[in-house]
């Protein structure tokens, strides 16, 4: 039995955390950890963003209208942020993780834990983010945790309640990270199934693109429910082929995140899909959406991973064809529905 486990609310801890990424989720998760009692330093690339986080406790560019906890500081010096940190939290776009982390390999503390907040699969290697973290920082899986769940940054920045999953092969590491982010509005559950939790986070973005495209085309709730439900089936199929635990998929990181991302107009993946459905080109849709819509690139790496394992992922395939191979959006539904008859199920 390895489904999401309950974690008691933590007492404040004086853990030191470095958060890599001053974007919407990095800044918001930094606030979550500060509210849970951690000392938090954010690394960002933009001098002005870092200065306003430290001096004005605001990040108007990525989390507008939110007062951040006063103790959070930010720096453009990633090595200084990581030195001495108990937790190194990574919240940058998946495709830039390897290059960024390789430069920090020699400064991460020998017993520090790395925490991936990223929801993507690396192009070219088809690696999950915890694998990229292990390879680029040169650390073992027992020092890595993944945080994934129905966690739209904008809602959490306003301290709206939600839950999440902290996955690690080490229960001790999962508990440490869970305690470092537990608060009255943010409820972590632990789960040893790193593969399943990570795949759920990456592939739900691709499914949200499909839902967005359908909605942009004017299709309704039956279509949305069909894409979400069959999307979960294909996520599960890929996960099981990679050795994930079947119980992860109906949990918070699976169905939970799929629902949040596919339903919310704040989701960048959903929004970008919607723009495509309304007739924008991919370049126009990326520009109109802003922020990181991981599913655009990860759709290709997820499909490659599935193909290498002989796993069928028709929705992911259709998204790749529309975004990257010029398939007209009007042909998407037909591509999905004109498949040969099969029984329902995984
Ligand atoms: N925003 C959200 O609600 C959530 C996001 N995530 C995941 O967190 C990760 C980060 O997403 P967001 O913070 O939302 O993105 P964002 O677009 O808001 O911010 C991205 C940050 O990464 C930096 N960045 C961009 N390119 C970079 C590069 N080449 N090298 C180093 N840094 C770079 C940017 O300067 C910015 O600080 C993604 O994997 C996303 O899927 C996960 C859960 C919730
Ligand atoms: O992962 C998320 C919610 O859990 C955020 O989704 P988007 O990246 O599509 O905004």
Automatic annotation (TrEMBL):
<feature type="binding site">
    <location>
        <position position="257"/>
    </location>
    <ligand>
        <name>sn-glycerol 3-phosphate</name>
    </ligand>
</feature>
<feature type="domain" description="Glycerol-3-phosphate dehydrogenase NAD-dependent C-terminal">
    <location>
        <begin position="193"/>
        <end position="332"/>
    </location>
</feature>
<comment type="pathway">
    <text>Membrane lipid metabolism; glycerophospholipid metabolism.</text>
</comment>
<feature type="binding site">
    <location>
        <position position="267"/>
    </location>
    <ligand>
        <name>sn-glycerol 3-phosphate</name>
    </ligand>
</feature>
<feature type="binding site">
    <location>
        <position position="268"/>
    </location>
    <ligand>
        <name>NADPH</name>
    </ligand>
</feature>
<feature type="binding site">
    <location>
        <position position="119"/>
    </location>
    <ligand>
        <name>sn-glycerol 3-phosphate</name>
    </ligand>
</feature>
<feature type="domain" description="Glycerol-3-phosphate dehydrogenase NAD-dependent N-terminal">
    <location>
        <begin position="18"/>
        <end position="173"/>
    </location>
</feature>
<dbReference type="InterPro" id="IPR013328">
    <property type="entry name" value="6PGD_dom2"/>
</dbReference>
<keyword id="KW-0520">NAD</keyword>
<feature type="binding site">
    <location>
        <position position="204"/>
    </location>
    <ligand>
        <name>sn-glycerol 3-phosphate</name>
    </ligand>
</feature>
<keyword id="KW-0444">Lipid biosynthesis</keyword>
<keyword id="KW-0521">NADP</keyword>
<comment type="function">
    <text>Catalyzes the reduction of the glycolytic intermediate dihydroxyacetone phosphate (DHAP) to sn-glycerol 3-phosphate (G3P), the key precursor for phospholipid synthesis.</text>
</comment>
<keyword id="KW-0443">Lipid metabolism</keyword>
<dbReference type="GO" id="GO:0047952">
    <property type="term" value="F:glycerol-3-phosphate dehydrogenase [NAD(P)+] activity"/>
</dbReference>
<feature type="binding site">
    <location>
        <position position="153"/>
    </location>
    <ligand>
        <name>NADPH</name>
    </ligand>
</feature>
<feature type="binding site">
    <location>
        <position position="62"/>
    </location>
    <ligand>
        <name>NADPH</name>
    </ligand>
</feature>
<feature type="binding site">
    <location>
        <position position="25"/>
    </location>
    <ligand>
        <name>NADPH</name>
    </ligand>
</feature>
<dbReference type="InterPro" id="IPR036291">
    <property type="entry name" value="NAD(P)-bd_dom_sf"/>
</dbReference>
<dbReference type="InterPro" id="IPR011128">
    <property type="entry name" value="G3P_DH_NAD-dep_N"/>
</dbReference>
<dbReference type="InterPro" id="IPR006109">
    <property type="entry name" value="G3P_DH_NAD-dep_C"/>
</dbReference>
<dbReference type="Pfam" id="PF07479">
    <property type="entry name" value="NAD_Gly3P_dh_C"/>
</dbReference>
<protein>
    <recommendedName>
        <fullName>Glycerol-3-phosphate dehydrogenase [NAD(P)+]</fullName>
        <ecNumber>1.1.1.94</ecNumber>
    </recommendedName>
</protein>
<feature type="binding site">
    <location>
        <position position="269"/>
    </location>
    <ligand>
        <name>sn-glycerol 3-phosphate</name>
    </ligand>
</feature>
<dbReference type="InterPro" id="IPR008927">
    <property type="entry name" value="6-PGluconate_DH-like_C_sf"/>
</dbReference>
<keyword id="KW-0963">Cytoplasm</keyword>
<feature type="binding site">
    <location>
        <position position="119"/>
    </location>
    <ligand>
        <name>NADPH</name>
    </ligand>
</feature>
<feature type="binding site">
    <location>
        <position position="268"/>
    </location>
    <ligand>
        <name>sn-glycerol 3-phosphate</name>
    </ligand>
</feature>
<keyword id="KW-1208">Phospholipid metabolism</keyword>
<feature type="active site" description="Proton acceptor">
    <location>
        <position position="204"/>
    </location>
</feature>
<feature type="binding site">
    <location>
        <position position="45"/>
    </location>
    <ligand>
        <name>NADPH</name>
    </ligand>
</feature>
<keyword id="KW-0560">Oxidoreductase</keyword>
<keyword id="KW-0594">Phospholipid biosynthesis</keyword>
<comment type="similarity">
    <text>Belongs to the NAD-dependent glycerol-3-phosphate dehydrogenase family.</text>
</comment>
<dbReference type="Pfam" id="PF01210">
    <property type="entry name" value="NAD_Gly3P_dh_N"/>
</dbReference>
<feature type="binding site">
    <location>
        <position position="24"/>
    </location>
    <ligand>
        <name>NADPH</name>
    </ligand>
</feature>
<keyword id="KW-0547">Nucleotide-binding</keyword>
<dbReference type="InterPro" id="IPR006168">
    <property type="entry name" value="G3P_DH_NAD-dep"/>
</dbReference>
<feature type="binding site">
    <location>
        <position position="294"/>
    </location>
    <ligand>
        <name>NADPH</name>
    </ligand>
</feature>
<feature type="binding site">
    <location>
        <position position="149"/>
    </location>
    <ligand>
        <name>sn-glycerol 3-phosphate</name>
    </ligand>
</feature>
């Amino acid at each position: 039995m390895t489904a999401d486990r309950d974690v008691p609310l933590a007492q404040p801890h004086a853990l030191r955390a470095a958060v890599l990424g001053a974007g919407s989720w990095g800044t918001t998760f930094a606030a979550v950890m500060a509210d849970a009692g951690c000392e938090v330093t954010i690394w960002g690339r933009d001098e002005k963003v870092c200065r306003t986080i430290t001096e004005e406790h605001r990040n108007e560019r990525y989390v507008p209208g939110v007062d951040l906890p006063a103790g959070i500081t930010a720096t453009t010096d990633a090595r200084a942020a990581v030195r001495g940190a108990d937790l190194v939290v990574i919240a940058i776009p998946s495709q830039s993780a390897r290059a960024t982390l390789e430069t920090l390999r020699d400064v991460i503390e020998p017993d520090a834990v790395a925490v991936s907040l990223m929801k993507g699969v690396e192009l070219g290697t088809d690696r999950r983010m915890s694998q990229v973290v292990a390879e680029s920082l040169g650390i073992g899986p027992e020092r890595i945790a993944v945080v994934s769940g129905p966690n739209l940054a904008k809602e959490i920045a306003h301290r709206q309640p939600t839950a999440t999953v902290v996955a690690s092969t080490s229960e001790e590491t999962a508990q440490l990270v869970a305690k470092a982010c537990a608060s009255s509005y943010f409820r972590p559950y632990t789960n040893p199934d790193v593969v399943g939790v990570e795949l759920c986070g990456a592939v739900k973005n691709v499914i949200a693109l499909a839902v967005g495209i359908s909605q942009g085309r004017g299709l309704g709730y039956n279509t949305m429910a069909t894409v979400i439900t069959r999307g979960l089936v294909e996520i599960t199929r890929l996960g099981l082929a990679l050795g994930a635990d079947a119980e992860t998929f109906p949990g918070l990181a699976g169905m939970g995140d799929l629902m949040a991302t596919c339903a919310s107009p704040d989701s960048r993946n959903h929004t970008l899909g919607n723009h495509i459905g309304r007739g924008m080109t991919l370049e126009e849709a990326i520009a109109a959406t802003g922020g990181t819509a991981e599913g655009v690139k990860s759709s290709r790496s997820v499909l490659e991973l599935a193909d290498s394992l002989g796993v069928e992922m028709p929705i992911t395939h259709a998204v790749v064809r529309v975004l990257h191979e010029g398939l007209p959006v009007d042909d998407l539904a037909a591509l999905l529905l004109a498949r040969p008859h099969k029984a329902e199920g995984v």
